[in-house]
Structure to design on (226 residues):
C-alpha cells in the first residue's frame, strides 16, 4: 500500500521567505508527527497530531514554525521568515494510534535557505 | 564488525560478515525501542522493535537485544550485504508517550 508521502522533495528558498511543507500520512493512521533532521544528526521532534485532540507543539523551535492538520489527514508545516539555520530535512511520520505504535516515515523535504 | 564501548558513528564491515550496532539509551523509563535504517536521500525505514518485557527479538536477518540493566540496545545483522549500507538509528519511547527520542546514528559501510 501507499506509504507516507511528502512534498516538495526539495525546496530552496531565500532567507526571510515563508515556506509550506506538506505531508500525506498513511490512510487510516490517526497519529501524525513532524521531525527535523539537520545534516549528520539524529531526528528532532517538532509536533504531534492525534485525531481531533489539540496538537503537541512542544518541539517547535520558535514561533516562526506552525503546523496544521486538516480533516484528520493531510498536514502542512509552515516556516515563516526562514533563516539559514532552518536548513534541514523535514520528516513526517504517521502511526495507527498514539503511544508506542510503529511510526512510518516519509521521504522528507530537504529545505535549503540561502 | 561491531562498534563497541562508547557510541561510534561509523562501522565498516566485510560483505558476508555479521554486523553489530550498539546503542546506549538514556531514559530508564523507556520501555519501547525501535531500530530504523536510513539510506542516503530517504526517510528512516522501520527495521525491528522490542518492548521492555523482552530481551531478544528476531526478524529476517536481524536480531535486537535489550539489556535494561545497563540500558543498552544492539542490532545484529547476519550476513551483511551491500544493501545494508546505511545510517542506523536507535529510538526509545516511554509508556504513555508518543515522542521518539533518537540516537545520533551509526553509519554502516559494507566492503565488497
Amino acid at each position: 500500500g501507499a506509504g507516507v508521502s511528502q512534498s516538495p522533495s526539495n525546496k530552496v528558498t531565500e532567507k526571510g521567505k515563508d515556506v509550506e511543507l506538506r505531508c500525506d500520512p498513511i490512510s487510516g493512521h490517526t497519529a501524525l508527527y513532524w521531525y527535523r533532521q539537520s545534516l549528520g544528526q539524529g531526528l528532532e521532534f517538532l509536533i504531534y497530531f492525534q485525531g481531533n485532540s489539540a496538537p503537541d507543539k512542544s518541539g517547535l523551535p520558535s514561533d516562526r514554525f506552525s503546523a496544521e492538520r486538516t480533516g484528520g489527514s493531510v498536514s502542512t508545516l509552515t516556516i515563516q521568515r526562514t533563516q539559514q539555520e532552518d536548513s534541514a530535512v523535514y520528516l513526517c511520520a504517521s502511526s495507527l494510534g498514539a503511544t508506542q505504535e510503529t511510526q512510518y516515515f516519509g521521504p522528507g523535504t530537504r529545505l535549503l535557505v540561502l | 564488525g561491531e562498534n563497541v564501548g562508547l557510541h561510534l558513528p561509523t562501522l565498516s564491515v566485510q560483505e558476508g560478515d555479521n554486523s553489530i550496532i550498539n546503542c546506549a539509551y538514556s531514559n530508564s523509563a523507556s520501555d519501547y525501542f525501535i531500530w530504523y535504517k536510513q539510506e542516503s536521500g530517504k526517510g528512516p525505514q522501520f527495521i525491528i522493535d522490542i518492548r521492555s518485557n523482552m530481551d531478544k527479538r528476531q526478524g529476517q536477518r536481524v536480531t535486537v537485544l535489550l539489556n535494561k540493566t545497563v540500558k543498552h540496545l544492539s542490532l545484529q545483522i547476519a550476513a551483511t550485504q551491500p544493501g545494508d549500507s546505511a545510517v542506523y538509528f536507535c529510538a526509545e519511547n516511554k509508556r504513555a508517550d508518543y515522542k521518539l527520542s533518537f540516537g545520533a546514528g551509526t553509519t554502516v559501510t559494507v566492503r565488497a
